Amino acid sequence: MEKVYSRTRMIQEKMVVGFCPGCMHGTVFKLIGEVMEEMGIADHSALVIGVGCSGLALEYVRYDATTAPHGRACAVATGVKRSNPGTIVFTYQGDGDLASIGLGETMSAANRGENFTVIFINNGIYGMTGGQMAPTTLLGMKATTAPFGRKAEEHGYPMHMCEILNQLTAPYYLERCSCNTPANVMKTRKAIRKAFQNQIDGKGFSMVEIVTSCPTNWGLDALEALRFLEENMLKEFPLGVIRDRSKEAN
Amino acid sequence: MSRVFMKGNEAIAEAAVRSGCRFFAGYPITPQNEIPEYLSRRLPDVGGVFVQGESEIASINMVYGAGQTGTRSMTSSSSCGISLKSEGVSFCAAARVPIVYCNMARGGPGIGTIQPAQQDYMQATKASGNGGFRMLVFAPSTVQEAADMTYAAFDYAQRDRNPVLILGDGVLGTIMEPVELPRMRSEEEVAQLKRELSDWTLIGHDPDKGRAFIKPGVWSTKGQEQMCKDNAALYDSWEKDVQVETIGLEDAQLVITGYGISGRIAASAVGKLRTEGLKVGFIRPKTVSPFPYGAYEVLDFHRVKCILDVEMAIPALMIYDVRLAVKDRCPIETCLHAGGEIMSREEIIEKARALLAK
Amino acid sequence: MAYVTILTESCKSCGYCVKFCAKHVLAVGKQVNKQGYPYIVAENPAACIGCAMCAQMCPEAAIEVYR
Known about the structure:
The structure holds 3 protein chains of 3 kinds. By secondary structure, chain A is of the alpha/beta class. Chain A has one domain (25-222, 233-249): Thiamin diphosphate (ThDP)-binding fold, Pyr/PP domains (Rossmann fold). Chain A contains 9 helices and 8 strands. Chain A has helices at 24-39, 73-83, 95-101, 103-112, 152-155, 161-165, 182-200, 215-218, 222-236, and strands at 3-5, 45-49, 64-67, 88-94, 117-122, 173-178, 206-211, 240-244. In chain A, helix 7 (182-200) links the parallel strand 6 (173-178) and strand 7 (206-211). The longest helix of chain A has 19 residues, at 182-200. Chain B is an alpha/beta fold. Chain B is built from 14 helices and 14 strands. In chain B, helix 3 packs parallel to helix 5 (86-95). By secondary structure, chain C is of the alpha+beta class. Chains in contact: A-B, A-C. The A-B interface holds A 9-10, 42-46, 48, 58-59, 62-69, 72, 75-84, 86-88, 104-105, 107-108, 112 and B 22-23, 25, 49, 51, 53-55, 57-59, 61-69, 71, 73, 87-88, 91, 95, 202-207, 211-217, 219. Strand 1 (3-5) of chain A pairs antiparallel with strand 4 of chain C, so a sheet runs across the interface.
């Protein structure tokens, strides 16, 4: 008998992290821990976390971590990485953090081709602050600040960050994944590993966008939210590789 | 020591590099442009990093990031740009990240003018960002002081693990003067300064041996209150770091007071008045945070008829601290300009004579 | 024979593992943990083939798998 799947040592052994039941933040931090362990990079890595529910993981993860002001993680990571290139630096940001207040920092860091990794969690809502509309909120989706549902003429359209960054020359790798099925979880793990490997190889800016659910603020239970994710979020945000320079003839 | 004829902004930039600054991020805004421009040439020479941020907000956050790796880091801006940086500076103060930044102040409020002014005094000394944190704030009045204060600022920042502000202005930034440049620290000295911080800096640590965890805030309110108490203890310890220049307080009947460029112009007025045998004293805060209240305390208020507050700010701002120091023991008059209008020596002399004649 | 272990205190009863276990090994339990969640139990352990789909899905890293 052999242990084929064990809990990553990169999260606190006994701690129950504060995410809601079914929240995939937990899944992604599990995957990040597994990849860091597998690649042996934990002792020279640093997390620059944005502001949002993800901050609940700060005490949960066991490697170096800092908090950026809301929206500024890509700028903070620029400073950390450029002044200490030997460290593997990654940001972990929600859709409000990365695509709303931090859109400028995200675009500019991507455009400079900063050699760090961005983990972007897209759940179409502001979680921590209680369900406000985000740049990725779907048309017709209700939010505490769009009580009648998002309307294009008033609130514009959901933003497709991988595709937007794909207009820039510098980014090296952009992939959109999800954690809604075991197969997709494994693809997400692979994407995170690839993004870290790009950084180790000095290839420049990599972003993994992970489409997730927010049961609490979608007003659904975990499994209903999973269905909403598949029937609606994944239609608006199709999964797949948007750019992978390693595949292009170089 | 090497003596050169240099522009204020460039002297600040060079002093930073000599003190060990190896990361700068900044954004264009008059009248501080030569600081980023100079460093974009100079930092690569010493293996340092220069980034033009996409905004002042991005720039301070890059410096907040670099500072957390133990790298001596700096940003600079002018007035409106400093406003944009206030959240970032607050994060540095909360997380105790050592950084240095400069405000080469200009006419305000709003976009104001690009010419020099001192209208950011309150912002600089009382509320540079949310949360009530404090900083050491130095107010140079000459290019020499700007270089020396910038050089020392990095040591204070590292000593206290706290942001330090150089409060300059457009005059200081753009005038050229002879300046003795401070000693260039060797690469080994700079590396050693960085090593001294490595137990807490964000460079990666073995999770089993204890990680670095930079906390610009904590979930527990008790924990956050304790951080505020620890910070307050640091701020109280700064009494010893107060710097002030005084002239002729032993026999003064009128005391002229001003900081930075206004202080310098006032000093030359005091010099002229004293040569005419008039009993005029002078107090020039060199640190404006902590403010040198003690310098006013020693005045003999039976003899001192009035204090003349000279500022390039309307309404006057440093006057609040002067009032705190004087405690109504004598009247305080003002001689003010703002919006980029430059203070003149003659106006101060005229005002002083009128006050003495009363 | 393959089996899984569940950190019952970490489980928040989201149900992902139950949904994706093709062999219907797992089910929402009757007991609640300290947080008040009815944690998942292996109701049909013999059927487990150690495929680890449950562990892949678990947001709490609460499941370990032996095969």
